[in-house]
């Protein structure tokens, strides 16, 4: 099996390899090839990353427009054509934006072709709101405002100063970002004309400022083919046994689902 791995903005394939090592080490002995890509653009480090990892750091695009995302999807599809097919894609943060856009654009524009990957594992990331709206999704004003506010909160809570002064207690103020809404209420903030149909796993943390973005991403995926898991942390992949074991179970499930599709 082959799994395409897409890192977050301001990190790298090598960093994502390290971030996922705790649960990947627990996967049963079976041939799984993890293909960790680097984004094409050099970047400053994501907030807090340079405290733990040396560069270089990369991103998948430099702007944040629909055109930027479409160009990144085109580059990704070119890589997949050369090195695929892939049984799954595993993504973190900005990587989730890229991977979800690739699936949505495939369904809207090239549904007669196989999907770019047979299943998806989204970790601590959401969709591109501009891409959703271009494709006919109705995004509420509250969801758009939440998306902007959560990005600003993440930059502050994940930064070096917050890490050094507060440690894990820096992940705060989430009720103000979610408005106290449940997961199902957050999902209803997006009206979907269609949904991602490949099997999906959604891993997000209830202390992550981008928690609502992760829930919104689950909303645009087929409910009967998705599983979600709250790791109860921030914008990170906790390395404790409970989280690692749960992610391993989900990865095995989604790979099995993708193989049957």
Automatic annotation (TrEMBL):
Residues 1-245 form the Serine hydrolase domain. GO terms for molecular function: hydrolase activity. GO terms for biological process: antibiotic biosynthetic process; monocarboxylic acid biosynthetic process; secondary metabolic process. Signal peptide: none annotated. Keywords: Hydrolase. Gene3D superfamilies: alpha/beta hydrolase. One of its GO terms (cellular component) is cytoplasm. Pfam families: FSH1 (PF03959). PANTHER family: ESTERASE OVCA2, SERINE HYDROLASE FSH DOMAIN-CONTAINING PROTEIN-RELATED. This is Esterase. It comes from Penicillium ucsense.
């Amino acid at each position: 099996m082959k799994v395409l791995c897409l890192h977050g903005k301001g990190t790298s394939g090598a960093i994502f390899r390290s971030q996922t090592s705790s649960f990947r080490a627990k996967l049963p002995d079976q041939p799984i090839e993890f293909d960790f890509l680097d984004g094409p653009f050099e970047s400053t480090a994501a907030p807090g990353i340079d405290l733990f990892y040396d560069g270089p750091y990369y991103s998948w695009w430099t702007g944040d427009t629909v055109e930027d995302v479409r160009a990144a999807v085109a580059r990704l599809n070119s890589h997949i054509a050369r090195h695929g097919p892939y049984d799954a894609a595993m993504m973190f943060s900005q990587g989730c934006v890229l991977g979800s856009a690739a699936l949505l654009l495939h369904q809207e524009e090239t549904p007669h072709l196989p999907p770019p990957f047979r299943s998806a594992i989204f970790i601590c990331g959401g969709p591109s709101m501009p891409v959703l709206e271009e494709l006919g999704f109705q995004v509420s004003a509250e969801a758009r405002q939440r998306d902007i506010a959560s990005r600003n909160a993440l930059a502050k809570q994940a930064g070096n100063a917050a890490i050094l002064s507060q440690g894990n207690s820096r992940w705060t103020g989430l009720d103000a970002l979610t408005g106290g809404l449940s997961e199902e209420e957050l999902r209803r903030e997006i009206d979907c004309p269609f949904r991602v149909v490949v099997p999906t796993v959604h891993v997000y943390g209830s202390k992550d400022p981008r928690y609502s973005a992760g829930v919104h991403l689950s909303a645009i995926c087929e409910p009967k083919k998705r599983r979600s898991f709250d790791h109860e942390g921030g914008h990170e992949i906790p390395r404790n046994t409970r989280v690692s074991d749960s992610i391993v179970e989900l990865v095995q499930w989604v790979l099995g689902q993708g193989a049957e599709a």
